[in-house]
Design brief:
aminotransferase (chains A, B, C, D), Aspartate Aminotransferase, domain 2, Aspartate Aminotransferase, domain 1, 7-stranded mixed sheet, 2 domains, alpha/beta, ArAA_b-elim_lyase/Thr_aldolase (chains A, B, C, D), homotetramer, PyrdxlP-dep_Trfase_small (chains A, B, C, D), 15 strands, 4-stranded antiparallel sheet, lyase activity (chains A, B, C, D)
Chain lengths: ~350, ~350, ~350, ~350
């Protein structure tokens, strides 16, 4: 049985495990004040070429989204997201739990369309009665999106311009950021992301770590007493080293990009296999998640040998399923998939 | 430099690191549905001799407290805690953040006094106007307490009786439970805890794990759709294996109790060292945290060689400081402490 | 200057003012425990022919929505509403503030379409991964809707069937319920509403009262300790008499229906005036709110003599505006409008 | 039967009823934008001699407390209150419901002791570990207190000094402010209150209105988009006139002070009656609430003729009960009380 179920089916990249083992006996201070957290922060700032950035580590993506949104919005504000955004659909209402509304926009291939955003905000402020409405205070987008798609630099800059014209914060959820940056279709670097966005995070959990997301505040905009706000949300890790050591490893010798690049390489090979056998793609994804249309009988047969994820019912006879690659995907896995496809 | 700063200064117990390394390449399902989580649940149920218990894993103590309290209280209810309880003082208002009041009781040595609790609840219901007040719906206690002290079985049963008489849930925060159970003064076993309490957690973070707390619902009282409630609070780990593997290791061959017992042994030796040199204890603690009174000059000198925690100012010339042992404390550490004390 | 700006531009119906004045010196107990609240409850139960109904009074509509939704949803649940629903758009995020997600459905003329609802819920439960999503726990609808439109009995029953099949609560926001029940197009009585819905409220603020909404729980489903839950949300009035006396007056001698019927009569006459002069309606509304398309120049001229509400920009040259009638609308007002329209 | 049960047993002062009746047919804009709200704001600013004050109207005391505290605290902060403060005990956890902790201080006669406050804050900042604790961001006090007692100007200034030294907001709950200002023991005017406090409210509900509290922000510190924040909390009244007209009446010809002064006069006479007959007071209250110790048998007898409130059990044979005066208390009421006391 070979698995493409998700990009978090295996443990951590061996280099991360090695660092955790080597530092295991060191006595370190808690709550993210240790030297590895410090070193990881420094390396991330350097990788972003943003020397004033504030970098903080959180355990997971939903937690990062909830903490960032809740601490950066003003009382009268909500966060704009695509209707298919992770915060809109798959976080069990975590953003609303913090008291904040997600203002859902129609999407195209999982992406917010700059013009749709511009129209929404313009309409909002055109209507004199907006004191009874939630003010748009932030734009949330995921890059890659939940459909594996990417924003172009031009799109991201157009969205940022709109945000800044209206005093909104641009927040990029980078749970799978590595796969976006190393995609063959990417026209952005990590520095571009850091320059354009007001806050974003570099996903660890889905890019080789056991857990962890590195939040980057790029504009001297880290909320005051952020550690207390994190604690208040039950999100402060006592052994903060667990996050610091992992990100220190990920940002040493480009490991983060190597992991991501490997997964992209595997995904491209996987695409060729599917295409070669005449399978249709539900969406054109340039990253590590591929959405393939299967006939239902085909799907049932394939399940015996290959693990993958249900995505959605397409029609009575077809289903969309997801195949994901990661640091742990091997050529042998691809050969097994190819064989199983018959 | 030797450190007794806390029980979370080192990484994980080597046996845990070994299990994480050995299972690292296995493909496992996410969100706590993997086989190691399953195995850990089974072993914990067996250790508690509570075969119907529901066991769920959360990342940290404040998170566990916030999730448990918020999902188990009814709308009109709050949680009773000692004025010195962790939820009362040192969680940055995490319980209130979820919308629930902490009803603080005066304490004795960090413990809720059963008679004080009984009086509080009786008074509450004696007053006909309680519809404008927060109903006491749960009792939170930590065992060991924040002062390292322990409830006796008789005390815990008296508190439980009071809870059940008034329909309240008894919740025990066991962030350091192992040290309580292996203390020389303990008259309770894990089975007693599971029998008496309605819900409790077995702390991992402070007892040898990298992170993780195992929440045990003992009375078929796990909130419905608990996974969704956990996700809603940003507390669901994608790689749930990280918690399952660690607790599976901790509950194999009594590792949890061995770790705890070692720390207690080291703490007892440390007490002898302090006592032998004439130091006063601020409180009589039978567990792994020791609270020692130092003259301020003495304290400054000692800081050069030994790391410990500030606890509180006693008077102008004296300070209470905390020395904690853990799985990583060695005899060599104790000798270094002894030497440094002069 | 004549005003059709809203249905809350005037004070209370004179009969209500009379009752407030007559009872003003009576000593009454607070918090909704007085005899007028009791009498109003009894009369509302009788009017609904639902003798077991629990009736509670709240001050305003957003408050009623927020309290009802927050106290009736389970932790994993959210509330379904039309994308144009009051809770979705015009309550400044009050539902999300209580921690609950509004699940927005596409609408037709402001109404939830029964088949769209059925499809949404069926899809939700078809998807095996719904533990990461907000469960649909309640359907919120307004009747009349924000566009003045009405559900038919058949539609409401279809929605109720769907709710009950999946264990969802059906909640009807009746801020303008009287106008719905007395509309010429209504095929439902108050008894039908009470029989079909699980909870609803009878709006006072917009139907002749100074303030106040009467919440009716029809299925022995009033949340336990509801008074405490109301207090906890800052929504409990000390002089509860203010609400009780008003609703007692409204449900004496059918005043509620007389007020509503008068406004409908005035609205129908107003429609004739607009139609007679060739104005277009943006939507076909059978209740007291009429949405008329005006050329922008026309609109500016009309503003000098008549007050009305901006609704939305239709195109560059046309605007949709709202004219509302109420208990205080007179034939003289209509003549003034007619004259102003030229 | 004569009633001293509370200061909200009767309707509104006749002058308020008269104003409501006289303005009833006027067409006014909603949500607090009408001319009576404007006029009331202006009169309150003048009465406070604080021409830049922002004045906003809310419906009730708990609502005012919850809205003010939630909109003025920063994320890491909580509000300090006396252990007997209204927000601490009798608001069903309304402050915690908004996510904010009430930091309870020991009290003396219902009052925060300036030195105790100073010590608390100094201790907080002395402890280097306060990042895990809720920061004291505001001091809440009620004047008169829940025990009818008053702060002296010196005490209030000492508290204010402490607040401002540490960047905390001083918030005074004036639900019964009129009775405080007209007490024979008061050494403060409304101008003093406005000068010393950062925000406070002038209670209407308990001082002659049907409902309503006038919140006064004295230091250009009204939260931005406050109307939206009020709406978000379900606290915005559609017919805002109801509050504006009442406060306009209360601040015309000193009505607010006349009402208060009358109640104080009645309370002083009542005190003489009790004292003359040898009854003991539980506390020395200089305002409109009197706390009298009754033997339980005496209490049962008195209940037949006089309504009063249970306060607390003193011992097995004695109970503390409360007698309150208000605008509606008459000399005849006092004679009836005297007669009933025998």
């Amino acid at each position: 049985m070979v698995s493409f179920e998700s990009d978090y089916i295996a443990g951590a990249h061996p280099q991360i495990m090695k660092c955790l083992a080597e530092t295991n006996l060191e006595c370190l201070s808690g709550y993210g004040t240790d030297k590895y957290c410090g070193s990881a922060r420094e390396k991330i700032r350097a990788a972003c070429r943003c020397e004033n950035a504030d970098v903080e580590f959180l355990v997971g993506g939903t937690q990062a989204n909830a903490v960032i949104i809740a601490t950066m919005l003003r009382d009268c504000e909500g966060v704009i997201a695509a209707k298919t955004g992770h915060v809109s659909v798959h976080e069990a209402g975590a953003i609303e739990y913090t008291g904040n509304k997600v203002l859902e926009l129609p999407e195209r291939n999982g992406k917010i369309v700059p013009d749709v955003l511009a129209g929404y905000v313009a309409d909002f402020y055109a209507d004199g009665n907006h004191e009874h409405m939630v003010f748009p205070g932030m734009v949330y987008l995921s890059h890659p999106t939940e459909y594996g798609t990417l924003y172009t630099k031009q799109e991201l800059e157009a969205i940022a311009d709109n945000c800044h014209r209206y005093g909104m914060t641009l927040f990029l959820d980078g749970a799978r950021l590595g796969y976006g940056l190393t995609s063959r279709e990417s026209d952005m670097t990590l520095c571009d992301i850091a320059r354009i966005c007001d806050v974003f995070y570099i996903g660890g959990t889905k890019v080789g770590a056991l857990c962890g997301e590195a939040v980057v505040f790029t504009k001297n905009n880290k909320p005051k007493h952020f550690m207390t706000s994190v604690k208040k949300r039950g999100a402060l890790l006592a052994k903060g080293r667990l996050l610091g050591i992992q990100f220190d490893a990920l940002f040493t010798d480009d490991l983060y990009f190597k992991i991501s690049g490997h997964a992209i390489e595997m995904a491209e090979r996987m695409k060729e296999i599917f295409a070669g056998k005449g399978y249709a793609f539900h969406i054109e994804s340039p990253t590590n998640q591929q959405f393939v249309v299967l006939e239902n009988e085909q799907m049932e047969r394939l399940k015996r040998d290959v693990a993958f994820s249900f995505w959605e019912n397409l029609d009575e006879k077809h289903t969309v399923v997801r195949f994901a690659t990661s640091w742990s995907t091997t050529e042998e896995d691809l050969r097994a998939l190819e064989a199983a496809l018959g």
